[in-house]
Input
Amino acid sequence: MDVYLVPIGRDRYESYFEAADDEDDPAPAQGQGIFARLRTNFRAQLREAERARHERRLEEPSGAMASLHRRVMRWIAERVAEQRLLWHMGRAEEATLHAPDTLEPAAAERIMRVMLQRDADRHLRLLALNAVGLVIATPFALVPGPNVFGYLFSFTVVGHFLAWRGAKRGLGRVRWRVVPNADLADLGRALALDVEARVQRIHDVAGRLRLPRLATFVERMTAPTA
Output
């Protein structure tokens, strides 16, 4: 798998991974029992979240529960984009880390490992917190249909588990190969340009790297916060 170390500020980086929506499911349901059923629900939620992200409906759903369900599915779609790297890393044996050629390979791998450790700690903590919510919501999580709270907690528990597992595998089992990349260095330099030139350069770099969603990711990560 190909992972990109993307500059988002002065000496600041974020990992980035882009996969097709129809790539292999990160959570194949195997066996029986509650967790297998949760993973089956999780797979259904991924499919519905992707549909919600791509669809443009002429009318918003009517009713409070329908509106709440749609907002939850949009939230899930955002979490899918954030966690897809770690989910796929949970099944990887090797990974290529594309890093700005202004970084030494050892430094780039060290930055990636720090981020993976951060992610492992964060997802383990969130897994524990959401597991409590799942216990309360279990009757909803295991019943088919638009059960908003069941959807939310079953997704977060399985999602955080897969993300934690992927981060731990990235730290201990994945073999990393660092490849210097001049386009990523160019992306870092673009952040110092004025707004119009910066946007143009970011989209240009995304095109050169053949990563159609990279520009949106960079713009979101570098947007000023209030």
